[in-house]
Structure formats: structure tokens, C-alpha cells
């Protein structure tokens, strides 16, 4: 459990660092929010989403 928390903390730190150098972090985040929404909708309709990297 501690290892998972540590890995999550490292990932959040990396993301925080990336947002410092991006010219528009909101656009970067929006891209992933949209992708997750599409993948979630497809999963809920029981489509085969293997072609998408969800």
C-alpha cells in the first residue's frame, strides 16, 4: 500500500512539473478528460474498444 501511494505521489509530481512548462495546461488536461469520457461511454455501451487505448 505504501508503495502504491509513493508511486501515485511521484506521478502527481511529474504532472505538476509538466503543467509548469506547458503553454496551456487546460488544453492538455481537456484532451485526457475527453478521451476518458469517450472510453467510458463506449464501455457502458459494451462496444469493443480494443482499437482505442482506453
Q: How many whole angstroms does the radius of gyration measure?
A: 15 Å
Low-confidence stretches: none
Class inferred from helices and paired strands = mainly alpha
Strand segment count: 0
Q: Give the biggest beta sheet.
A: none
Proportion of beta-strand residues: under 5%
| Morphology | flat
Mean pLDDT reading: 82
Characterise the protein shown here.
The chain has helices at 2-21, 25-44. It has a domain at 23-54. It starts with a helix and ends in a 10-residue tail after the last helix. It is mostly helical. 0% of the residues are buried.
Task: Pick out its properties.
54 residues; mainly alpha; flat
Question: What is the secondary structure topology, with strand pairs?
Answer:
Elements: H1 2-21, H2 25-44
Short structural description:
Helices cover 74% and strands 0% of the residues. It is built from two helices and no strands. The mean pLDDT is 82.
